[in-house]
Amino acid sequence: MTRIGFRHTLRAEFTKTLTLRSIQGTLAAALVVPAALALASGLAFDPARGAQFPLESHGFETAGFGQPLVILLAALITGTEYLDGQLRTTLIATPQRGRVLAAKLLIVAGLGAAIGWVAIGASVLIKHAALGAHGLPLDQFTAGMGWNLVGVGINYALIALIAAGINIIARTFIVTLVVLVPLVLGITISLVGVTPLLKYLPDLAGIQLLMPYPGVGVLEPLPGGIVMTLWAVVLIGVAWGFFRTRDTPTS
């Protein structure tokens, strides 16, 4: 009998992921939408009204719009097989459930980070190009902008893992979308001034990895990233236990 290693499982899961049309469409949207928004925002910029945020942050404001698509992508990668009953087939081919789940989570986190770096990196370049004389030329991009971009990739990878954890626990991506998407679209940040404890929720904890939010009352990037990581570790740990022990749905 041929021994199937983690590399083969990862390759199979990656191939399966990229051949699903729903995932292809979501991945394309996650790469294109932030850049399109950056272009529209740059072309509509009115110098007379001034900028709403520092010059170095232009383009990074689109990162918040990419988060819902990253959440949807993670939900589709880890949840589609629950809908069509294919998970049973997958686990017959690879009975080592931990290996299958590890491959899915690695793909989820890797694609999340890659989307952050590619899509938001392109958004920053496009936004400053569209701003013309009001933007920064490429040779004046700062190291802080580079670290901001690194933070976006980390935030996307973590929110993707959090979405995957909720998805596997609930066995449906509807719950994932209902719980997480409203949060990242701004519900909690509008309430954090009234209820400061909201800054520890997974969406707000790492929000300054996307771009600076001075004076709002949220955590700084490093402690925020640590809190967000703890959320991901806890949810993935619970999901790992459920995935390894629960019966496999047939449809």
UniProtKB/TrEMBL annotation:
<keyword id="KW-0812">Transmembrane</keyword>
<feature type="transmembrane region" description="Helical">
    <location>
        <begin position="105"/>
        <end position="126"/>
    </location>
</feature>
<dbReference type="Pfam" id="PF12730">
    <property type="entry name" value="ABC2_membrane_4"/>
</dbReference>
<keyword id="KW-1133">Transmembrane helix</keyword>
<keyword id="KW-0472">Membrane</keyword>
<feature type="transmembrane region" description="Helical">
    <location>
        <begin position="221"/>
        <end position="243"/>
    </location>
</feature>
<feature type="transmembrane region" description="Helical">
    <location>
        <begin position="177"/>
        <end position="201"/>
    </location>
</feature>
<feature type="transmembrane region" description="Helical">
    <location>
        <begin position="65"/>
        <end position="84"/>
    </location>
</feature>
<feature type="transmembrane region" description="Helical">
    <location>
        <begin position="26"/>
        <end position="45"/>
    </location>
</feature>
<feature type="transmembrane region" description="Helical">
    <location>
        <begin position="146"/>
        <end position="170"/>
    </location>
</feature>
<protein>
    <submittedName>
        <fullName>ABC-2 family transporter</fullName>
    </submittedName>
</protein>
